[in-house]
Amino acid sequence: MNSRLSNGVAGKMLKGNIGIISVLLLLCIILSFTSPVFLTADNIMSVLRQVSNNVYLALGMTLAIIIGGIDLSVGSIVAMCGTLTVGFIVTNNLPMWIAVVLGILIGTLFGLATGLIVAYFRLPAFIVTMAMMNITKGVAYIYSGGRSTRIMDEAFTSIGTGKLFGIVPFPVVYMIILIIIFVVLLNKTKFGTYVYALGGNREAARLSGIPIKRIEITVYTLIGLLSAFAGIVLSARMYSGQPSVGEGYELDAIASCVLGGVSMSGGIGNISGTVFGAIVLGIISNGLNLMGVSSFWQLVVKGLIILVAVIIDTQKGRGNLFKKVSK
Fold first, then answer.
1. pTM exceeding 0.85
2. pLDDT by residue (tens digit) across 72-106?
3. Backbone phi and psi for residue 131, each to the nearest 5 degrees, phi listed first
4. Domain range summary for the chain, segments of one domain joined by +
């Protein structure tokens, strides 16, 4: 019975993401010929470790886009929470666990504030999160004076550099756990049903008695929490809190979602697609690095990928609309 259920879930996942999986396999085949290093165990683990930070953010971004919103503040919250947490330990001499809890709490509170403003003032999430992006970035620079803070506390740095059984990096372990949690959250709970309903038709959701404000607040609060967690893991990996990190992270998260089939018009998308999208982006970056392509050109490639993915999503949406009208 369990094997049948697992086979059914796996089959559904493969069928729903056949396009992005095909792209992923094609990339792996091409890069395996262009670089002998690509398929080595060390490089694969390196790719997964690099991808993990984007996945943390993309999980929350998936929820935001499905409900018809977006969050541009994730990268700045990453920088702010990483900078504050390291500063609390090094400058303010707080115990490590208290500093980590405070860092996560602060990011979560900023997410909560975003959700409250979006839900109760009915302002566009794009504008609210853009404002939060500047506020959180400012907080990071004000607290640190614009300087990075070095940390050598092994208890803290092991959060980002440690390995499970000496093989699997902790950031990858966190990523797997979070993916499982969000798959269950979105597909097996009432909250997930409400998220899809809200993104599919806001007015119908309201008339059905779905607590729209509560769902929006919860989604943006979760994004704040995930961004804070990503910031702490990243600062532990870098052995420092840097107010300048996080720039462009929101675009990577959005690109992962769109590549994975999350519709920018809301109501459509899944966690597995987003994860595959993030892996594709990570493999592209890794492959370009192995080929010695400039980081400046990598920005161009990422921008083109986002543009093409959005165009495909838009055309697909128009096709669905045409079918509905013709019926």
1. yes
2. 999 999 999 999 999 999 999 999 999 999 999 99
3. -65, -45
4. 42-247
